[in-house]
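Obj: model holo form, ligand = pyridoxal-5'-phosphate.
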Amino acid sequence: MLANEVPHSSHPLTCPAEPVAREALMAIADRPPAAMVRGDGAWLWDEHGRKLLDFIQGWAVNALGHCPAEIVSALQRQSQTLISASPALHNGPQFELASRLTAASGLAQAHFANSGAEANEAAVKLARKWGQANRPGATEIITTDQAFHGRTLAMMAASGKPGWDQKFPPMPTGFVKVPFGDLAAMQAAVSRQTLAIMVEPIQGEAGVVVPPPGYLEGLRKLAHEAGVLLILDEVQTGIGRTGKLFAFEHESARPDILTLGKGLGGGLPISAMLATREVCCFEYGDQGGTFNGSALMTAGALAVLNAVDDAGFLKNVTERGAQLAAGLARTKGIVEVRGAGLLWAARLSQPLAVPVVTAALQAGLLINAPRPDTLRFMPSLRTTPDEVEKALLLLQQAVTKVYAP
Ligand SMILES: *Cc1c(COP(=O)(O)O)cnc(C)c1O
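Output (holo structure tokens):
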């Protein structure tokens, strides 16, 4: 049986045997007790040798699955040459990654950081700097209800999770919220105070909320006409996750500022903020970070981009996504399926997502519950037809168990 299979590999299981002082780690999430020790493609093994089909993949970060050969060899090669020169010096892979991302996005320049939140902070700083020169007096950025932009103080304020903008006062200000997917509400909210509009093309953490067709295109037009910036947070949707390299390509809604994270590093901590020529106005000292754009992380991200660029890669994302969505729609207990590419959510007829996630874990499938009635699926972008079928089978077992115990 899947769940109890022992890994057939020579890799040692490197987690120390119990008892380990797990209390030494701050508890910031309700995690299952077992530690993970090894990953390979779609599969993850815990310290007890249990094999799990991973449809979380590091929270949509392992774009190529666990421990892909390309990243392993890029890290091996680069770490023997240069790991980090310092943020005050140039390195080759950083130049190459910047030119690849700007060419692919149609934006002019890139800045690298280490997390999605940090890239979004950079985006807000850049927008405010641009505004000081181009829209004097305007300081507000319009974001959306339920949005997720990260966990720094400013990004919690920018996010639309209820209560988040007041959780750790004093909080940064300057963010105005409107309902997501509602173009008229956005239009009504734009004023002389407005500097920028900032949205996710698909709201990921909110539960894969897909806006109506034309929304991004409408925002692009609105921002242009109002003379404000369009910032797209593609930390979750970027780098092939929705079947295009960038989700904005679905509607030709190229933003003024674009942020990337998660899949960009294929599991490595790297993020990026890109902008048009007119908006790139940082001066020396405005922005930086000790680890930003290190040779090692940018070399790893280049390995991801090379793989995603391969003919057939995005086609697989779209085809496996269609397979997964069709299977979810057939699954008893699921009443709504939404998403794109390989980012999908399934709404259950009852608020049983947490017990279903637990039952799925017991059956050998890793998924998550972004909402009490919603499951989310974010497998490796290289997932195979067999893996998708297997996931659907394990999911049906879990749902059946929870619905009819
Ligand atoms: C995950 C996520 C972030 C935050 O990224 P971190 O790397 O966790 O800081 C920001 N925006 C979106 C859309 C995300 O999904």
